[in-house]
Amino acid sequence: MNFERGALALVGGFVSVLIAAAWISPPASGSAAPRAALNKAEPMILSGGLAPGAVTSEMIKPLDLEQDLNGFDVAAGPVGATAGSLHATFGRLGYHLDKIKSGDKPVPRVFLATLPEDLAQVPENKQRKALFFRTMLPLVLQVNEEILADRARLWKLRYSTGLGQKHTAAERLWLRVMTERYGVKAGDIDALISRIDIIPPALALAQAAEESGWGTSRFAKEGNAIFGQWTFSSSTGIIPLKRDQGKNHQVKAFDSLIDSVRAYTMNLNSHRAYKKFRSARQAIRRAGGPLDSRVLAGKLQKYSERRQAYVAALRNLIDFNGLSPLDDARLDDGTPEEKIASAI
């Protein structure tokens, strides 16, 4: 008993230090409400399990850039090769959006650290948009898997609490970390359940396209900033060229695309500006219905100064590009042991 108390005291002290550090230098969830780089990460294919930072991948053979790229018309020369080779890789894996939308195939666990630098040079608009969606979709699904793992653990603790069972030291520590991370009162499991939940893929993709100019914005290129989150820390942001006089915000930059997606989900799941979004999502859950991207988009007026016009733009993106079926998309069940890290 004394040993357990001593261990808990030691762990508690360690957590207090981490909390203090997070308070002084808050994570991405502390970014300013409406908006989401450092040096660019290598264009590495990443894929794997739930653990953040896992670096595993579909085995991708080096591509011969002279090969037939199935009619994918990009600019000649080394600049145009990146988007073309990525398109060819997706094709070799059988990764096509129409097959994902129809439910015929799962999404391969292939994650890019950065978007192709020549994405804006792909002349065909339809191909450029498809390449953007195919790059971002696995990342969104991966982060949703991470969230669902935490949610499942949370429901298990809620059930055991209802049975009057005491939590272990590890469970108490995990709950404390979660309450601090998501900004709820200590021990409030119900509040955590309303916050620790997924963002429907179609909505995330629509916001990614809208906020990053289909991955071609300066912020996306320089800092993997796909969702336009603001920060007031000069060490982690990119200064907007047309920032209004008197403003001191920057656009938060990230080491990789998946870090940007994680920060985006945390922003929607924790910031007070998106309380109505979370309430609507929870109401859908309680009613037993599927999360609808178009419905939930209607609760994101505060994400942009454009307000209702922003909501209309998101819904138009979802409808025009037929994204709603992607709310049912799932990653394949390949195991990390079968994959390796590789670069295009």
Q: Report on the biggest sheet.
A: 3 strands, antiparallel
Number of helices: 12
- What share of residues is helical? 40-55%
Number of strands: 6
Q: List the domain count as a whole number.
A: 1
Task: State the separation between the terminal residues, measured CA to CA.
Answer: 55 Å
DSSP strand (E) fraction? under 5%
* Order of SSEs: HEHHEHHHHHEEEHHHHE
Helix/strand class: mainly alpha
What can you see in these coordinates?
The chain has helices spanning 2-24, 78-92, 97-101, 125-162, 169-182, 189-195, 201-212, 218-223, 257-270, 275-287, 293-297, 308-320; strands spanning 44-46, 111-112, 230-231, 237-238, 250-252, 342-343. It has 344 residues and is mainly α. It has one domain (2-343). The strands form two sheets. A three-stranded antiparallel beta sheet has the order 2-1-6. Strands 3-5-4 form a three-stranded antiparallel beta sheet. The protein is globular, with a radius of gyration of 21 Å. 38% of the residues are buried. Residues 21-81 and 335-344 have low confidence and may be disordered.
Give the topology, please.
Blueprint: H1 2-24, E1 44-46, H2 78-92, H3 97-101, E2 111-112, H4 125-162, H5 169-182, H6 189-195, H7 201-212, H8 218-223, E3 230-231, E4 237-238, E5 250-252, H9 257-270, H10 275-287, H11 293-297, H12 308-320, E6 342-343
Antiparallel strand pairs: 1-2, 1-6, 3-5, 4-5
Helix pairs in contact: 1-5, 4-6, 4-7, 4-9, 7-12
